[in-house]
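Reopening this one. Same input as before:
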Amino acid sequence: MYSSKHFFDPLVRSVAVLSLALVIMAVAARGQILPPPIDLSSTVVGGQGPVMAIDTNGNIYVAWSQASPGGVFFRRSIDGGVSFGHTVVVQASPASALQMALDASGDINLLWASSSVFFSHSADGGASFSTPIKVPSFGSSAVDPNGNINIAWLDSHSQRLLSIHSTEGGAHFSAPLAVWGFAGEPADVMASAGPEGQFYLFWYYSFHIDGQCDVLFSRSIDGGGTFSTAANISHSAPGACSADPSPFVDASGNINVAWSTRLTGPTGPDIWSVSFARSTDAGATFSAPKSIVSGTVPVSVASGRGIAVDPSGAIGIVWNAGGSVLFAHSADRGDTFSTPVTLSLPLKPNFSGGGGADTTVDSAGNIIVAWEDDGMGTFAGDDNIFFRRSKDGGVTFSAPVNRSNNNNREDVSPHIATDLRGNSYIVWQSTDIATHSPSVFFGRVPASSGAPLSNVQAKNITATSATITWTTTQPADSQVAYFIGSAKPTWSACCNPTNVTSHAVTLAGLTPKTTYNFFVESTPTGSSTQADSSTSTFSTLVATKGVTTGSIATAKR
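Same output, byte for byte:
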C-alpha cells in the first residue's frame, strides 16, 4: 500500500520551494516602486472590457463599456497617465465588446455591441463624440493612417464574409460588400490596416467533415472598395485544424500572423502547435507556415495582441499554454525561433496560472509583456496583473512585476501600450471578489532609462542604523526603499536639495539583529524618469545595553 507519508513529504517540500520562489519574485518586483493604479471607472460605478490607445503626442485614451446600468465611457490623459480628465459618456445604454482605433491624426473611432451595433467618432481628442450610428453587424474594425475605416464580419444568414468602409470618419458607411462565400463553419475574422491604405482580413474555416480547417486571408488595396480572392495561408495537414489567427502589421508594413494548430492523433493525444507566417509584399504572398512549438498541451495565441516587432525587425510571439504564458523570439525575421521561455509565475496545484497575455515594443526596442496570473493569489482565480521587460530582443527578461497588486480583487484582461518616450501603460478589468462588481484600472510603467546606478553598498551598520551609498552617471536625487521580507517598503525622506552623483542616505530607527532588503532610486536633474537598483540586503547588529530605537522621517509613496 502507498503510504501517505511518502506523498506528503515531497508535496511539503515542493510547496516550500514554490513559496520561496514567489517571495523572491515579490522582492525583485519591488526593485521599481510604481505609482498606484487609478480606478478610472469610479465616477460611473464600474465598467469592463477596457481598451486603450496612445497618439503621437503621448495623449492616452481609455474607453470601456458597462453592462449595468450601462454605457460606453471615455477618459483622456495629457500628462502621461498621472491624471485623467472627466469621464465622457459616449452612449448611456448597456454595451459590451468595445473596440477602439486611432488614425494618424489621432482621431478616435469606437465600435461596440448594444441593442444594435454602434459606431462613434471623435475628431477633438475625445472631448466629444459623434452621435452613435448603427452599423449592420458586429465584427472586427480597422482604421488606416488616412482615417478610412473598415468593418468586417461573418454573416451566418447569407453565408458570406461581409465588409463595409467609410472615407468620411464614420459619418457614412458603404453598402455591405461580399468578400467571400462559405458553406461550412468559419470563425474569428480579424481586420488589420496597412500603412498605405490597405485592409487585411484573416479568419479560419472548416473545409472537411473530419474537422480540418485553415487560416484564410483577403486584402484590399483600394481602401475597402474591393477585396482579393481568399487565400489559404496555413495549409494544414490532413486532420489538422489551424485557427485563431493573430495578425500584426509592423512599422515597415510587413504582415506577421500567428495561429494555433491542433492535429488530431489517430490513436494518441492531440498535438498542438503555434504557427507563424509573414508577408513582406503587402499580402501578395506569404511565407510557408513555420511551427514555433508543438506538444500535447493546448495553446492559444492572444487575439490580435500576441506579436511584437522591434525596430531591427526582431519578432516576439507570446501565447498561453496549460496555465503558463510563453514567449519565443526570432532575430532573423521569422526564419527561425528561439526555444520558448515561460514568463508567468510558477503554476500552483489547482490554480489557473497565467493567461490573457498582451505584448508591445517601446521606442527603445524593449519588449514588454503583460498578463494575468493567480500565482501569488490565495485561491484559484485570485489574479493580479504582471509584466516583464526585455532589453535584448526577448533573449532575457526582467523579473515579474505585480502591477495591479490589488487585494480581494480579480484583475484580468490587461492591455498594454507605449508612448514615444518609452513609457508603458497598462489598463485592465478589476472585479471585487465580494460584490462581483467590475471596474477599470490603469497603471503606469515608467521607461527603464534614467541615471544609471552603480556601486550600491550598505556601510556603517549598527544595531539601529545603516548608511546606503551609491553613484550615478549624472546628477540625480537620492532615496532608499527598505523592508523586511516581502512587506511594503518604507522610503527615506525625499529628497536631497542638491542633486549629486555620489549618494549617501542614512537609515535610522531600525530594529536590532534584523535582515533588511533595500534598493535605491535616483531621478536625474531635468527628468521625471526614475532609475532603480536591484534589491540587496544588510543585517543590523545585536543591540547593546542601553540602546533604544527612534523614528526616521519617511516619505509616503
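So the earlier flakiness isn't reproducible anymore. For the record, Confidence is low (pLDDT under 50) at residues 1-31, 547-556.
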